[in-house]
Amino acid sequence: MAQAVEEWYKQMPVITRSYLTAVIVTTVGCSLDIISPYKLYLNPVLVVKQYQFWRLITNFLYFRKMDLDFMFHMFFLARYCKLLEENSFRGRTADFFYMLLFGATVLTGIVLIGGTIPYLSESFAKIIFLSNSLTFMMVYVWSKQNPFIHMSFLGLFTFTAAYLPWVLLGFSVLVGASAWVDLLGMIAGHAYYFLEDVYPRMTDRRPLRTPSFIKALFADEHVVVARPANVQFAPPAADDVLQG
């Protein structure tokens, strides 16, 4: 069993493995009172006035207490983060890292701005950890890129992946969790999906092009499709040549 878990862990792509490790270490450390959550949560006053900039990162690493909700989010993180990095972002580690950076920035900005809006400030003031929202953002992006996959929720009913975020949002409401946390993830995920997939098709422009300094942090991973040996391919038909 331990060997199987070790192999599963080693086979994870680098960003998923690194983020999952940081999350588990941070959450376990807080549970054992080795790390104080008060040193991790998002506090705009402490960030600006006392230069505690690490809070902009650490608030994405803590998932509160280790309970059933924690296990659910670890499953979502390990599954959908891994699926995105291995499939949609295969060979594009820098682009995947930039997606997470974009999502974290959008989520932080929403919370900071929302905290200044009357009637909403009280709700946003309660959101001091954005780890759940970032995980939900990845679920949303995956669902947009794989909308026709058939899924089942706890064996109760089936649906396509396009509705997965809404099913999970409904489940969160039923168990008494704050809907704001999931909604923020959906907003950040839709912002990325629109700017990365929809807007470029409309305008031929790509505003979320990964900066070169981020690409320099990751070695290029070329995806090669192997051609079987000793296999001869027939020449294209005349109609295909004309259409090409």
UniProtKB/TrEMBL annotation:
It is found in: Endoplasmic reticulum membrane. GO terms for cellular component: endoplasmic reticulum membrane. One of its GO terms (biological process) is ERAD pathway. This is Derlin. The gene is LOC108979631. Belongs to the derlin family. It is a multi-pass membrane protein. May be involved in the degradation of misfolded endoplasmic reticulum (ER) luminal proteins. The chain crosses the membrane at residues 19-41, 96-117, 123-141, 148-168, 174-195. GO terms for molecular function: signal recognition particle binding. It comes from Juglans regia. Keywords: Endoplasmic reticulum, Membrane, Transmembrane, Transmembrane helix.
